[in-house]
Amino acid sequence: MRIMTRSITTAAAIYGFAVPAAHAQAAAAHPSFAGTWTMDAAKSTSSGTLPSAASWVMFQHGDTLIADRSVTSEEMGEVKSHVVVGLDGKAWKNTVNLPGIGEIETSTVATWDKAALVMVAGGNIQGTDFVQTDRWTLSADGKTLTSVRTVTVEGNEVQSTTSVMVRKS
After folding, report:
1. pTM of the model
2. Of 33, 56, 151, 155, which one has the fewest beta carbons inside 10 Å?
3. What is the largest distance, in Å, between two alpha-carbon atoms of the chain?
């Protein structure tokens, strides 16, 4: 169980950067997360694995967000992903290939809590179910995206991460 939990927390940390933030359905009350972002490692924290570097390029098309991401960690090296999520109230499925683990299929539902985007993704890594919850907020000036993530395995929280991303464009 301990080795499996470590594999899941590492994979979820990397995959977590592969799960995109969604954008408002053209509603002015919701912030836009579209743009190019890089992780500020000095301001980011984790109770588990924190990547050494991450960059996200996100595009908004109507109620669909497309994210192309690159995440680098000591354990997995560089992992690139292309993920699509929408705000249509339905689960969106994506598959990411993680080195040493293989393909992971997740099902993600994104909802809004006022100006915060909340995404709940579920999946299975090597026979063990996990749930990852992300809460995304944007600073008032739109230059900083903060993601607070929790990962649970078999109902137990195994990781909590705060990722601070800085808008480059």
Report:
1. 0.80
2. 155
3. 46
Q: CA–CA separation, 91 vs 9, rounded Å?
A: 22
Neighbouring-strand partners of residue 123: 106, 130
Distance CA 110, CA 25 (A): 12
> Which residues fall within 8 angstroms of residue 118, CB to CB, at 6 or more apart?
110, 111, 112, 133, 134, 135, 136
Out of 34-38, 50-54, 58-62, 81-85, the most confident range is 34-38
20 neighbors 86 (Cβ within 8 angstroms) = no
Residue 63 CA to residue 87 CA, distance in Å, equals: 6
Confidence of residue 63 (pLDDT cuts 50, 70, 90): confident
C-alpha–C-alpha distance, residues 72 and 81, integer Å: 12
DSSP-derived secondary structure for the chain: -HHHHHHHHHHHHHHHTTSPPP--SS-TTSPP--EEEEE-TTT-EESS---SEEEEEEEEETTEEEEEEEEEETTTEEEEEEEEEESSSS-EEEEEEETTTEEEEEEEEEEEETTEEEEEEEEEETTEEEEEEEEEEE-TTS-EEEEEEEEEETTEEEEEEEEEEEE--
